[in-house]
């Protein structure tokens, strides 16, 4: 919108570079062009402001396919006013000289024109296309048909309008139909998911079986090695027992031989000792045989006295003493003889 200010009963207009201003006074063009700035009198000025920038027009409309299914189409048309003078002559772009606001709704008129023209061509395409084909290839077909139809529309150049681009955002069926159409695809996806799940479970079962077989093989190998270990331990124990028995036999034989040698030595020693004792006894007897009996008696009494307990005092009665003296006297007489 143009910027209008008041000074001393006059008006000053300043427009943007993207707005084409057309100033008429008494039916004659005074100012004409984008981005102009000038003074004017509001009572004698006729002003028009035509935007010359690119504008986006979003549109949405319903259509029916060849198989009588309702679809909604969303599209966007980019356009611009290439001939503002022609547009200002065909459409009311006049503005209030005091406020700068449009007196009418020119952009709404342009939107209606473009929307109805585009809708006409889109409906023509979709009416000859089944729903499935419209959902698959309909976007490109509708875009091309709308672009070609707007380019061939004679009213647009006559109004000074140029279509820059056409975009079709989406073509969608009704919610129930869309859900019904999604069902087979969802079923296929679910089947693929189930198949992947089953395959994953099968792979897991196969891996578990392989693990169980490996564990069983490991247990069998462990049992076999334990059996070999038991056999080897038995063999080692038997060899140890045999070695120990052989060592015990050798030790027993050595001990027996040692005891035999000791016994022989002891017997020899005993025999020699006995012979020596016999000789000593014989010599002792021989000496005693040549000794006087009184001396032997004295020696015997002395030996007896050595082995008797100690006697501190001895009391003899006169009768005993007389008898002993008599025996001693007789013994002495016999010795003299």
TrEMBL record:
Claim: ATP-binding is one of the keywords in the record: no
Location of the Band domain: 25-197
Annotated coiled-coil segments of the chain: 188-215
Region ranges (Disordered): 227-250
Pfam families: Band_7
SUPFAM superfamilies: Band 7/SPFH domain (SSF117892)
Signal peptide residue numbers: none
Keywords, comma-separated and alphabetical: Coiled coil
Full protein name: SPFH domain-containing protein
Organism: Streptomyces polyasparticus
């Amino acid at each position: 919108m143009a910027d209008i200010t008041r000074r001393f009963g006059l008006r000053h207009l300043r427009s943007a570079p993207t707005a084409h201003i057309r100033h008429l006074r008494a039916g004659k063009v005074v100012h004409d062009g984008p981005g102009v700035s000038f003074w004017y009198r509001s009572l004698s000025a006729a002003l028009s402001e035509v935007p010359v920038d690119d504008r986006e027009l979003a549109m949405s409309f319903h259509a029916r396919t060849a198989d009588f299914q309702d679809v909604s189409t969303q599209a966007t048309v980019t356009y611009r006013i290439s001939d503002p003078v022609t547009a200002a002559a065909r459409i009311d772009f006049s503005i209030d000289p005091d406020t700068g606001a449009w007196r009418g709704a020119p952009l709404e008129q342009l939107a209606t024109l473009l929307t109805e023209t585009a809708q006409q061509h889109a409906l023509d395409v979709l009416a000859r296309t089944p729903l499935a084909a419209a959902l698959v290839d309909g976007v490109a077909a509708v875009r091309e048909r709308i672009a070609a139809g707007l380019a061939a529309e004679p009213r647009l150049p006559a109004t000074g309008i140029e279509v820059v681009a056409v975009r079709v955002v989406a073509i969608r069926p009704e919610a129930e139909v869309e859900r019904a159409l999604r069902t087979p695809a969802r079923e296929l996806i679910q089947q693929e998911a189930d198949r992947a799940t089953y395959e994953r479970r099968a792979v897991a079962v196969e891996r578990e079986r392989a693990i169980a077989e490996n564990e069983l093989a490991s247990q069998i190998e462990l049992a076999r090695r334990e059996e070999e270990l038991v056999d080897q331990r038995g063999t080692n124990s038997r060899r140890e027992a045999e070695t120990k028995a052989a060592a015990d036999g050798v030790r027993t034989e050595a001990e027996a031989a040692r005891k035999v040698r000791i016994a022989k030595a002891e017997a020899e020693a005993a025999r020699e000792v006995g012979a020596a004792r016999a000789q000593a006894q014989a010599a002792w007897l021989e000496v005693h045989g040549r000794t006087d009996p009184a001396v032997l008696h004295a020696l015997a009494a002395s030996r007896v006295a050595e082995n008797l307990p100690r006697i501190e005092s001895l009391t003899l009665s006169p009768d005993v003493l007389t008898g002993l003296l008599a025996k001693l006297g007789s013994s002495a007489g016999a010795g003299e003889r």
